[in-house]
Automatic annotation (TrEMBL):
Organism per entry: Lentisphaera araneosa HTCC2155
Residue stretches making up the N-sulphoglucosamine sulphohydrolase C-terminal domain: 203-359
Gene3D superfamilies named among the record's database cross-references: Alkaline Phosphatase, subunit A
Pfam families: SGSH_C (PF16347)
PANTHER family: N-ACETYLGLUCOSAMINE-6-SULFATASE FAMILY MEMBER, N-SULPHOGLUCOSAMINE SULPHOHYDROLASE
Name listed for the protein in its UniProt record: Mucin-desulfating sulfatase
Length: 373
């Protein structure tokens, strides 16, 4: 295990690990290892993680045995500090704005209207978008300081330059790892899987960060390369989720998953074979409120077209609010159709599905405390 894990204490179950403590730092990163702590002065975490992963592949693994290597990058976590080379390449770029950048949230309820994750209010000028950089100070001086939309647009561009420069650094370093596999011949019998822990708002709805069950943060990238098994260039639209990864790794290793695990092996899908009883809906639950970004607690269920979300708890009128979206007719989820009688039958079906999945996953209600001011 090399990179970010964001768990306290010593790693469990790994033969070898070098991990960032907590969120870790982009520059001069410290790594906690099986042998203590090491700081890489004047280096960037993305580059160091790749370097240490290659070192393990070259020098520390048993060359005669199968291996599993997990490489977890800190980037592109807030506050988006790219390597110098990519920062320079992106510093003058201009990116198209999402057409929901100035969303007024009229079609949704309390949660969307009262969150604290907007580019406008939440995104910090100095820490997040580095407004004190000379080139950015100059750009800032050219807009009307009383023009709110102009400032949001400028902050969005700064955000995109830093975020996508971080992404470019990760992309480049994954390329270095893939090159190493090819140079050593390991590419012929090594499965490579790439994913993330969630999607992220890149200005959609005027937001950054994640947390909501809306599509931009709910959908997650997932790519897989399995030589001789997964057809190159193929695409699968079945519903999968992060709880499926452990079962998938076990199945690939020929190990039966424990009965109490809740996910499903993705091996059949990677072989191009969708089981007849594959899931038709996904369950989601967000508990962390009151907390950073003030996203209200919510749970929900979604299929490929329809999505039902229940916001609940303190600071939600009457204790709960519902939203329902038809992703075919409203893919950007601008207007909830929960009160629309034309969708009453679909909403009823999803409420039953929600109840069934809550039972299946043994969902626990966690008491909600009022944060003291």
């Amino acid at each position: 295990m090399i990179g970010k894990i964001h768990l306290k204490g010593a790693m469990q179950g790994f033969d070898y690990w070098e991990v960032l403590p907590g969120q870790g730092k982009y520059w001069h990163p410290e790594f906690v290892t099986t042998n203590g702590k090491t700081t890489y002065k004047d280096e960037h975490s993305t580059d160091v993680i790749t370097k240490r992963a290659k070192n393990w592949l070259q020098n520390d693994r048993d060359q005669e045995k199968p291996f599993m290597l997990m490489v977890h990058y800190k980037a592109p976590h807030r506050a988006w500090q790219p390597t110098t080379r990519w920062k320079e390449k992106f510093k003058a770029m201009t990116f198209p704005e999402p057409d929901t950048l100035f969303d007024d949230y009229q079609g949704r309820g309390t949660a969307a209207n009262k969150q604290d994750m907007s580019i406008d209010v939440t995104m910090r000028m100095s820490r997040d978008v580095k407004s004190k950089l000379p080139e950015r100070t100059e750009e800032l001086s050219k807009i009307d300081p009383y023009d709110k939309k102009a400032l949001i647009r400028l902050k969005y561009q700064w955000y995109m330059r830093d975020y996508l420069a971080c992404i470019a650094g990760v992309d480049e370093n994954i390329g270095f790892l893939l090159d190493y596999l090819k140079e050593t011949g390991l590419d012929k019998n090594t499965i490579v899987m790439y994913s993330a822990d969630q999607g992220f708002y890149l200005g959609e709805h005027g937001w950054f960060d994640k947390r909501f069950m809306y599509e931009e943060s709910y959908r997650t990238p997932f790519l897989a390369h399995w030589p001789g098994v997964t057809a190159p260039g193929s695409h699968n639209s079945d519903l999968v989720q992060n709880i499926d990864f452990a079962e998938t790794f076990l199945a690939m290793a020929g190990i039966k998953a424990p009965e109490d695990m809740q996910g499903e092996s993705l091996v059949p899908l990677l072989k191009g074979e969708t089981p007849a009883d594959w899931r038709s809906h996904l369950y989601y639950h967000y508990y962390e409120y009151p907390a950073v970004h003030s996203v209200r607690r919510h749970e929900g269920v979604s299929g490929k077209r329809f999505k039902l979300i229940r916001f609940y708890g303190i600071d939600v009128p009457n204790g709960e609010e519902w939203e329902f979206f038809d992703l075919k007719n409203d893919p950007k989820e601008m207007t909830s159709q929960y009160g629309n009688p034309e969708y009453a039958a679909e909403i009823a079906k999803l409420k039953i599905e929600l109840a069934n999945l809550r039972e299946k996953y043994q969902v626990v209600e966690i008491p909600q405390k009022v944060r003291k001011k």
